[in-house]
């Protein structure tokens, strides 16, 4: 018979069992007498039919177990092992987990190591070049604009907007780092409040924990990965992110979580950098800044120029160009100030940042001139700004 041979084939010829032989290693052969014969083939593998019954029962039991897990709200083990392949949003939309496109564990490790080592001020904010007096001076000038908004003094705004509620003011800070800003906020608030600080790096909280205990502040700490955080629905009067979003890969997911997490009148306060991915300063801004530096006396600049390299790896600025468009799809700005085309790079330069010392009259004149040029270039649309200071409410 031109059909496959296998050891489990049985045959009866004219009612009698016979061996099924293999021909050419492939076909089934059976010996018959000349004339009319009736050959009945049957395939009867080992364990038949008990294995069939067993396999169906196993499948049935697995199905029942899965239904019970779902009813109890237990996630399937695969989704616990890797936080999520697909991130569910608002119960209906799903989004791809973009961290899967990176060596994510390695990135997180580097991020923790980096921020565990940075210099910190006595107020637990970022120190080192970020504490340069020229950079503080720049922010004092920016404060004259931001200060016109009612949000600039956050404690006063929060006390006025939410202080009369029966519940404490609920504040969630994302990527809080050493928590200096949050401690300052807690100290400034007159109304009852609870501030939750989050960061991926547990170690970074240790000084803040001590300070909170010593000064009896209403701050709690949670280790959270913002790429997967689940913010409870409608529970926050203020969510604020200070220099954290430019480290985030699942940006759409996080922004949707923020939308959902805000209470009815809740606001999202964002202080962020939104320039070129991985490099931050746009090439034309860098050239413009260097042209200005080249016009200044060497005794001020010591012939130094900017030479900014893009970060080849890491999470620094990973999707920062997309922050603004994604933000504006979901939020309406109540107040938004975009500024700083290049001043960050001059003021936080390890040498230039010190040379433009505002305590020195001549250096301050040049520093003021640079800030004037920076402001004017942004205001007139000549250069794109890198810095964002805004307060937002969800569009819906
Ligand atoms: C530039 S620092 C800002 C810290 C603080 N908000 C401030 O302004 O001083 C960025 C912070 O984001 C945290 N971070 C980075 N990726 C994160 C993630 N996926 N989830 C939570 N925190 C993250 C870092 O550990 C770091 O503390």
Structure description:
The structure is a single chain. This protein has 396 residues and is of the alpha/beta class. The protein folds into 2 domains: 9-43, no CATH class; 98-394, Vaccinia Virus protein VP39 (Rossmann fold), CATH 3.40.50. The chain is built from 14 helices and 14 strands. It has helices spanning 50-72, 77-81, 104-117, 133-146, 154-162, 180-188, 206-214, 251-261, 283-294, 298-301, 323-330, 343-347, 352-355, 361-379, and strands at 9-13, 16-18, 21-23, 27-29, 39-43, 86-89, 93-96, 169-174, 193-199, 219-223, 236-242, 262-273, 331-339, 387-394. A 7-stranded mixed β-sheet has the order 10-9-8-11-12-14-13. Helix 6 (180-188) links the parallel strand 8 (169-174) and strand 9. Helix 8 (251-261) packs parallel to helix 11 (323-330). The longest helix has 23 residues, at 50-72. The N and C termini lie far apart (73 Å). Bound molecules: S-adenosylmethionine (SAM). Residues 111, 115, 125-126, 175-177, 181, 199-201, 204, 224-227, 242-244, 247, 315 line the site of S-adenosylmethionine (SAM).
